[in-house]
């Protein structure tokens, strides 16, 4: 390790969270080792989490040498800026490309993921599909962005995985879980062929397989969460 | 200018927007000159805006050598990363402090500004005050963050204005407009004394005064916008 990159890393997470998965992916691609603390799925949050993220009380939190960093986009940028000499750079070197990567990361959160979460709370399959319309529209927009960012290469980051691959990569396990549970292809081969191929390409990388959760277990978890959400409607 | 910082800058804006004001403030503190294109308040959006920000169709857009950058947080980071040799650095040099600055910038947008906008759409003063409760809670949380970031110095950035000063600074004209219109003190001296003093300190800086809109004009604009929002309720 070089630069400011020495020291102890501890990740507070929850195994199924796409936001936590982003951080796990970033650490995996950077080749960094860390202690992992799993938050309880149900019941009260840990003292360590409440102390480390008093503003939002949410995972992921990365604790580096005792200092907590919160929110997946900010954590992944922090990892990349601190561990400059370790593993590949995730953010592009060029400021304009970096701005584009940040723009599309925000787009994924605000447009794609937000509507997908809303859809998962739909009571019936019909309601879910109706609520997925903006999700599919966002995926089509992101399909064009993939062409722009990757410049014909296999990843958003070009020849190797970068920031946006990790940001979207946090959702990949859920793409597989949607397919397994509902036969639903979110990154559909006809509407978003580039992203459809990207999902398969990203999923089989060693660094991805090392952190991706078991899909059957994710499907079981999704059933429990959706039942709770429907009850709360 | 040094680094990648040469070239033509054009800002697409709307004079009253706090997001546009952030970019104007960043350019002002960096001492950068630029062409400014005002979008029409009402009626259709310009071809240049639609072409430059096809995803969101929103100002601000900064066009640098013909290439558009969108969203105020991303634009200000871009300016700081491209014009490294011009004016002060806005983002902190230390990665952890940079992560904190990004965290609080997101907090300002998601918690403070979002609830404030909702409050402005309240039909009565009572409804507005009720909806302002989360805004005041966010300001009290930010008060503690100011102490953490400034380390007893006058600005979030320390001795000089930094990223978070510019992010919160975009709201300062609206703080003055709320006071002028409703006698409402958002950054109240008893609940948030540090931020209350910060508003006054930030407002009188030459670089701020150079870009801050006229408060009376802002009050008139707020009346028109709120009437429209109430109609649309």
From TrEMBL, chains A, B:
Residues 7-87 form the GST N-terminal domain. Keywords: Cytoplasm, Transferase. InterPro entries: Glutathione-S-Trfase_C-like, Glutathione-S-Trfase_C_sf, Glutathione_S-Trfase, Glutathione_S-Trfase_N, GST_C_Tau, Omega/Tau-like, Thioredoxin-like_sf. The keyword Transferase applies. One of its GO terms (biological process) is glutathione metabolic process. GO terms for cellular component: cytosol. Its EC number is 2.5.1.18. It comes from the Eukaryota. One of its GO terms (molecular function) is glutathione transferase activity. Its main location: cytoplasm. The keyword Kinase does not apply. Residues 94-230 form the GST C-terminal domain. It is found in: Cytoplasm, Cytosol. It catalyses: RX + glutathione = an S-substituted glutathione + a halide anion + H(+). Belongs to the GST superfamily. Tau family. Is involved in the conjugation of reduced glutathione to a wide number of exogenous and endogenous hydrophobic electrophiles. This is Glutathione S-transferase.
């Amino acid at each position: 390790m070089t630069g400011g990159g020495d020291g102890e890393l501890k990740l507070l997470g929850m195994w199924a969270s796409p936001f936590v998965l982003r951080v796990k992916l970033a650490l995996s691609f950077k080749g960094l080792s860390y202690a992992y603390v799993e938050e309880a799925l149900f019941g009260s949050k840990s003292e360590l989490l409440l102390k480390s993220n008093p503003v939002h009380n949410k995972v992921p939190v990365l604790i580096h040498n005792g200092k907590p960093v919160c929110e997946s986009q900010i954590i992944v940028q922090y990892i990349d800026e601190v561990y400059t000499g370790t593993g590949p750079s995730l953010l592009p070197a060029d400021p304009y490309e970096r701005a584009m990567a940040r723009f599309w990361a925000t787009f994924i959160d605000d447009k794609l993921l937000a509507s997908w979460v809303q859809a998962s709370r739909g009571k019936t399959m019909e309601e879910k599909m109706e609520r997925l319309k903006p999700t599919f529209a966002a995926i089509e927009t992101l399909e064009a962005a993939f062409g722009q960012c990757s410049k014909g290469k296999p990843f958003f980051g070009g020849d190797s995985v970068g920031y946006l691959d990790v940001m979207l990569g946090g959702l990949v396990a859920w793409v597989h879980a949607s397919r397994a549970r509902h036969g639903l292809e979110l990154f559909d081969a006809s509407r978003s062929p580039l992203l459809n191929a990207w999902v398969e390409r990203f999923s089989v990388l060693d660094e991805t397989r090392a952190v991706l959760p078991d899909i059957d277990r994710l499907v079981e978890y999704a059933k429990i969460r959706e039942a709770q959400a429907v009850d709360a409607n």
